[in-house]
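Ticket #4471: structure output looks truncated?

Reporter: J.K.
Steps to reproduce: submitted the chain below (329 residues) through the standard prediction queue, then opened the result file.
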Amino acid sequence: MNQCVTKPMKVKRPNKLFHMAMVFALMLLVSARPNQVTTLFVIGDSTAANKDISGGKQERGWGMALQCFFDPDYIRVDNHAMNGRSSKSFIDEGRWQKVLEKIQPGDYVIIQFGHNDEKPKPDRHTDPGTTFDDNLIKFVSETREHGGIPILMNSVVRREWASAASETEADSLIDTHGLYRIAPRNVAQQMNCHFVDANQITRDLEQGLGPEGSKRLHMWFLPGEEPSLPDGRQDDTHYNVYGAHQVARLLADALCQEVPVLKKYRVDADVTIDRQGRGDYLSLDEALRHIDPLSPCTLQLLGGEWERPALPKKQRLTFVLREGAQWKK
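Returned output as attached by the reporter:
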């Protein structure tokens, strides 16, 4: 297997037949263990990370919401993304080693860095083409050495707009990532690795919503608008609950397109309720306050016991209980 290389060296692209043989062997191994849940690990930065939900905090990472779109009886999302981390600091702090120790043959590892690798701080900074690529190669190679399947992603966009020069032109997003956006694709081609263009996917999403509409995705609140942020916040990088779910849904679709075997485990309820903050709402009562029970709606409940709600006789809600969720007796 390929190892992490030094700057002057060039990594040879793995033999395609050898790679296909490895994938086939992994498929046989996974099929021999039909009752074992496959883990989808996520490593990355704050745009994907799990967030503190105490006090009604609204910030979420897309990796936190990803479980809503895969059946946890078959695909379990284990999110190790962490605020402020780059590919370098994630390795240096021992976070990557902890993930390696958990990988089982047939598991997947989503690798997405760049936001903090760009920053000049010496404990985070890497350079595309050399140290950034070396770290990505390390993640890919060591994932494979442990029997896992790596999936490289580039960074999601920042909401930074350039105003149109004239009325006939549309406002457009500014690319803030440069070569850090391109390097993961290059490494994926070099290593014959799965790649999802998260940058383009989120660019299309934000561009479609426009300068004002795209605020709905982010931690963008006026003073007094959000109880957990009395002074407001104008954050063009991090997602709120709605934004994290919109991005996670699109990335789940892209993952299924890139890795078709995942399609059979793809789920998509209208609303997810989860006490850990992965869903659209933390409580069933809160969800029902925002839903018309006479309109068709599928509600997914993740884990724990839930009080069955009293609903109108003609209600058109469908409840799906997953991850061991059950009604209280």
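Triage note (M.O.): checked the attachment and the full token line is present. The chain has nine helices and 15 strands.
Status: closed, working as intended.
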